[in-house]
Amino acid sequence: MPRVVVFDETGGPEVLRLAEEPVVEPAADEVRVRIEAFAVNPLDQMIRAGQSPRPVQLPHARLGVEGTGVIDALGSGVTGLAVGDPVLLIAIPDFETKGSYAEYTTVPASRVVPRPAGLDAVGAAAFWVAHFTAYGALVERSGMRPGDHVLITAASGSVGRAAIQVANQIGAVPIAVTRQTGKVRSLLDAGAAAVIATDREDVAEATRRHTGGAGADLILDAVMGPGLAELSLAARLGGTLVTVGWLDPRPASFPANPSLTIHRYMGFADLADPAIVRRAAAFLAAGVRTGVLRPTVDRVFGLADIVEAHRYLEKGTQAGKIVVTV
Ligand SMILES: NC(=O)c1ccc[n+]([C@@H]2O[C@H](COP(=O)([O-])OP(=O)(O)OC[C@H]3O[C@@H](n4cnc5c(N)ncnc54)[C@H](OP(=O)(O)O)[C@@H]3O)[C@@H](O)[C@H]2O)c1
């Protein structure tokens, strides 16, 4: 019988275990996907640890909100997709019963998009969440334009690296922020026009230096925490700050720049909008085609090593996505 990863109680990585579940027939307007690979996301870690944004029904909860695979069966009424099509699973809202940490799942047909040509299963698994989040926050929500100076915190992370690439695809100017001088070279190689290392320089002052004194047009922040007030001073008058994450769990300080427009971006909300998903899929596929957008894979695990994959995520030393092949 096909294998799935489940957990019966919340806790450390060791609560995850392999179980077997029968294959389910897709309902009307659903597809069944034979999963080939999925990424391990910080959200999965939060859900497993009992910090889910919404309650999860235990025992025997599944995990995994995204992944990639091949269409295995079509429910009635599904058009435009065929058995054998490689697809991305873009969001699985009822992950506790249909999560992607499994050999098979069934999802509404609206929750898959074609896998961009040029990505294999591992690359595709590392691609969607990071790049959709960067695209949604910068382009859909903040209206990033060519020539904009875009300051990107946690730029070494998967969303940060995707944001550098998305800014380059638009013709904006990505300025990366890292806490470590040792990562400057790799961020320049990743496409940043400039890199600010906060272990040796002040972020607001350095941003002004890189923007001819004006400040950043747009800031994408995945950190929040007490550093938010100082970060906001890096924006130009009338600039925009879009927050996507909360890597620093301490309470966020109030931005000290009163002229800022502030957005809080949640990709899940946009993923329910078919028009945004269609635009994002087209933008992201075009970027893969031209080579501007590419996934960053840190390490690949097998399904049987799911506990090790979560332990590795908890160490926080990855540079790019942690992918599990099924
Ligand atoms: N809004 C959404 O829809 C959405 C979607 C996906 C992810 N997210 C969130 O976005 C955030 C980033 O996700 P990710 O996958 O890119 O994470 P990631 O790959 O784990 O990012 C790790 C990088 O962030 C930096 N970092 C870590 N902790 C930090 C801290 N306390 N202060 C400053 N920098 C820190 C580090 O870079 P340096 O050492 O170089 O500083 C580290 O290399 C997470 O909070 C995630 O939950 C949100």
Unreliable stretches: none
How would you sum up the major sheet? 7 strands, mixed
What is the subunit organization of this protein?
single chain
Number of domains: 2
**Residue share in helices?**
25-40%
CATH topology of the largest domain: Quinone Oxidoreductase, Chain A, domain 1
Name the CATH superfamily assignment of the largest domain.
Medium-chain alcohol dehydrogenases, catalytic domain
Radius of gyration: 20 Å
- Apparent shape: globular
General description of the model:
The chain has helices spanning 42-48, 95-98, 121-125, 128-141, 158-170, 184-189, 203-210, 228-232, 267-271, 274-290, 306-315; strands at 3-7, 16-20, 30-40, 67-74, 86-89, 104-108, 112-114, 149-152, 173-178, 194-197, 216-221, 235-243, 261-264, 297-302, 321-325. The strands form three sheets. Strands 3, 4, 5, 6, 7, 14 and 15 form a seven-stranded mixed sheet that branches. A six-stranded parallel sheet has the order 10-9-8-11-12-13, sandwiched between helices. Helix content is 29%, strand content 26%. It folds into two domains: 3-127 and 295-325, Medium-chain alcohol dehydrogenases, catalytic domain (Quinone Oxidoreductase, Chain A, domain 1, Alpha-Beta Complex); 131-268, Rossmann fold. With 326 residues, it is of the alpha/beta class.
